[in-house]
């Protein structure tokens, strides 16, 4: 499994997809905003012509000519302002509506991926961090595109006016081209620098969160590492910002140079018109037009440069990342052409499974072959880093095996629909999340279809042995969890753990029940009693008939001795497996570790 940075899709493909997404979001607002934005470019560019006619009217005298020229100039100015204002308001409304849909779409894409690899790999996280920052900006893609086209329209109309005065003035465009090219290059260089510093920016953010939020507050103060947190954040920020600042400085120097050349060419063009042939009135009108149009040309070229830079550096880049995420999600959808069984008859089997985390030196699982029989209670034990949690992750399809396969009743797990498979899983993980909702809702999330069923929530609380926790809450299941919320209560780690257990027991008839060290905050006696109850339920007729597999992961050997099958992992391999009595009789690793723990409890 490679840890190299993924290659982004082509710009053309990405922008096309993003534009189609925006059109589907709000087609009427989109078309209206585009028409108004482009229409506003015409009177704005023709203002130079109005100034020319006004100058000629002043030189020739006559009230009628002055009134007509003034009325034309006013009409162009007001028309440009009204169209621009209306277009901006419509585009803003479109962007607000589209932003909600696009951000929801990005979140849905990430959660739709069957595995969680993209949320744990550093190179993928760098891409996703930039996409999250710019997801809302994608809603501005059309506005940027319209503004860019509008700016180009202004440039073309302005060049046409200049050429009508003196054809050679059209050469000003040649001097304007480098400003656009340098700007595009500038955006690309700065974007590479920004992408290169994505991980350091995430690290700077991590240092900031450590130093400014409650979870780490006690340890930070006891250890007295406040200065180290500040220094760490500063160092990470410098690593991210210094290369970007250097890239910006170099590109700014180039930008200034090409604009200086354009400015010199513009001054020369005005002097050329002023010294040309023609009557004084005609020359005055031509100079006025050249000044107005030439001055506006620099402004319009600047607008084109700015919009193209944002389009190239932000919206285009964000759209490429969005397309990458779409393709990533589609590539991991798999065949999913086999149904999830209604009950397990044979069980789950790991066949020569190997797995290595991206960036790791060695495999976490190496040629692992083991069966989890239907209707059994299976315990997985081993020292830290032996691969216990990884085995569970593969069983839940959070990752795909790098080699070998996992089968369910003989069918490849990779061919089962992941959402359907997970709907038949239940349990709790050691790194459970703290949902700061009302207690009943935080538990009910374990089975969303029955989240509002208080009877089902009550049964889950009973299964998890969490009744004592709920009893301490002032409003029972209606109590808001988390002291930072209005009316919320502080919840200890052990209480959170029992609530997480209850959430894991919301489903009544799962095919697989996973308990990945979910009772670390409980004492050994409480854990043993809890697991004993789970094992008894698993062996009851309801559990046996459905072929339910209960997987227990624990460091406490006194707890797992009740299991039908104990799998001992060591050095990424299955070292031994069997019942407690069989493993004790063998006198291997399990027996050694069991006796050590037994002696410590005595």
Automatic annotation (TrEMBL):
It is found in: Cell membrane. The keyword Ligase does not apply. The keyword Cytoplasm does not apply. It is a multi-pass membrane protein. Residues 348-596 form the ABC transporter domain. The chain crosses the membrane at residues 28-54, 66-87, 168-184, 256-275. Its main location: membrane. Pfam families: ABC_tran. One of its GO terms (molecular function) is ATP binding. Keywords: ATP-binding, Membrane, Nucleotide-binding, Transmembrane, Transmembrane helix. This is ABC transporter ATP-binding protein. It comes from Sphaerisporangium corydalis.
């Amino acid at each position: 499994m490679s840890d190299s940075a993924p290659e982004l899709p082509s710009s053309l493909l990405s922008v096309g997809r993003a534009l189609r997404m925006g059109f589907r979001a709000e087609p009427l607002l989109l078309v209206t905003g585009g028409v108004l934005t482009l229409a506003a470019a015409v009177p704005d560019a023709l203002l130079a012509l109005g100034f020319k006619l006004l100058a000629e009217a002043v030189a020739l005298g006559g009230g009628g000519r002055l009134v007509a020229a003034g009325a034309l100039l006013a009409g162009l100015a007001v028309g440009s302002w009204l169209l621009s204002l209306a277009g901006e308001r419509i585009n803003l409304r479109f962007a607000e509506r589209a932003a909600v849909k696009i951000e929801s779409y990005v979140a849905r894409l990430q959660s739709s991926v069957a595995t969680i690899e993209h949320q744990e790999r550093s190179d993928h996280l760098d891409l996703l961090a930039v996409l999250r920052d710019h997801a809302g900006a994608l809603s501005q893609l059309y506005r940027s595109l319209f503004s860019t086209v509008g700016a180009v329209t202004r440039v073309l109309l302005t060049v046409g006016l200049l050429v009508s005065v003196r054809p050679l003035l059209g050469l000003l465009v040649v001097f304007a081209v480098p400003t656009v090219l340098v700007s595009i290059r500038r955006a690309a260089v700065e974007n590479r620098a920004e992408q290169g510093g994505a991980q350091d920016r995430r690290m700077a953010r991590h240092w900031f969160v450590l130093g400014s939020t409650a979870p780490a507050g006690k340890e930070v103060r006891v250890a007295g590492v406040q200065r180290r947190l500040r220094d760490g954040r500063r160092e990470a920020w410098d690593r991210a910002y210094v290369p970007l600042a250097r890239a910006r400085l170099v590109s700014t120097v180039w930008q200034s140079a090409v604009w200086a050349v354009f400015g010199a060419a513009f001054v020369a063009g005005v002097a050329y018109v002023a010294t040309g042939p023609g009557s004084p009135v005609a020359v005055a009108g031509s100079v006025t037009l050249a000044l107005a149009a030439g001055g506006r040309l620099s402004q319009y070229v600047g607008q084109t440069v700015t919009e193209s830079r944002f389009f190239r550096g932000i919206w285009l880049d964000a759209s490429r990342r969005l397309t990458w995420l779409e393709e990533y999600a589609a590539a991991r959808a798999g065949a999913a052409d086999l149904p999830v069984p209604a009950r397990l008859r044979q069980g789950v089997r790991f066949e020569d499974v190997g797995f290595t985390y991206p960036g790791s030196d060695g495999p976490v699982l190496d040629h692992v072959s083991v069966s989890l029989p239907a209707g059994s209670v299976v315990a997985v034990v081993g020292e830290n880093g032996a691969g216990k949690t990884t085995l569970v992750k593969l069983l839940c399809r959070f990752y795909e095996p790098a080699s070998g396969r996992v089968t369910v009743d003989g069918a490849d797990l990779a061919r089962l629909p992941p959402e359907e498979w997970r709907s038949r899983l239940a349990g709790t993980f050691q790194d459970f999340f703290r949902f700061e909702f009302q207690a009943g809702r935080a538990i009910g999330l374990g089975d969303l279809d029955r989240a509002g069923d208080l009877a089902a929530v009550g049964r889950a609380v009973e299964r998890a042995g969490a009744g004592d926790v709920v009893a301490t809450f002032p409003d029972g299941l209606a109590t808001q969890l988390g002291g930072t919320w209005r009316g919320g209560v502080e919840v200890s780690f052990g209480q959170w753990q029992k609530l997480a257990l209850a959430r894991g027991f919301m489903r009544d008839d799962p095919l697989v029940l996973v308990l990945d060290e979910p009772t670390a905050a409980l004492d050994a006696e409480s854990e043993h009693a809890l697991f004993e109850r789970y094992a008894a339920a698993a062996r009851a007729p309801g559990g046996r008939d459905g072929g339910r597999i209960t997987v227990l992961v624990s460091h406490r050997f006194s707890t797992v001795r009740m299991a039908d099958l104990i799998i001992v992992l060591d050095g990424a391999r299955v070292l031994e497996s069997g019942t407690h009595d069989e493993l004790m009789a063998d006198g291997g690793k399990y027996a050694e570790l069991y006796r050590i723990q037994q002696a410590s409890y005595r």
